[in-house]
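Exercise 3.2. Students should predict the tertiary structure of the chain below and write it as structure tokens, then compare their answer with the key that follows.

Predict this chain's 3D structure.
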Amino acid sequence: MGSVSSASASLQTWFVDDKGLSRAYDWFSNSNEKWPWKPLLSRSFILPKHRFTLWLMAHAKLLTRDRLPFANDKSCVLCSIQHESVQHLFFKCGFSAAIWNEVRNWLDMRKIMGSPSAILKAFRSNYRGNSTLSRMRITALASTIYYIWNARNKMMFHEVKPQIEDIVRRVKITVFRCIPCSIDVSKMVTYS
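Answer key:
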């Protein structure tokens, strides 16, 4: 906005009526800033909490144990093998890798999701578009990140051991709830 005074003036005009929050959101979400994740994160069919978690992951802002100076134990909550970082938790951990493999196989995604930059590259080159399948893949991406983070937090704070099958099922349910689908669901989901 250029300066504190211009930001203050904009805030005052936004909040003249009850639409200030909406106007602020529109301004920030439509900024012309070049940001490589914007095409993925601007999709309206992604649940806001999933979009926010994906945004935090893309910016390396999630408070994994490697970013907590007061944490004595830096090991991954899900596998206890290596130090927990965004890279490890979402892409190198055996638990997360098993989830990614299930989701990739389900949606016929050949590219390996091995890092945030690999995800971005895969979606730019192979999985873009507005077809039902593309929308399902984007929703699955955001949901997978969200549910891995959620499973990590449940394990860390409540000692609830997550199950890979439960997380994959939640990803699938989220995809089908968010994307109106004309694809034969019976061929894509295994019910237990």
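Discussion points: The chain has two domains: 1-32, 36-187. DSSP finds nine helices and no strands in the chain.
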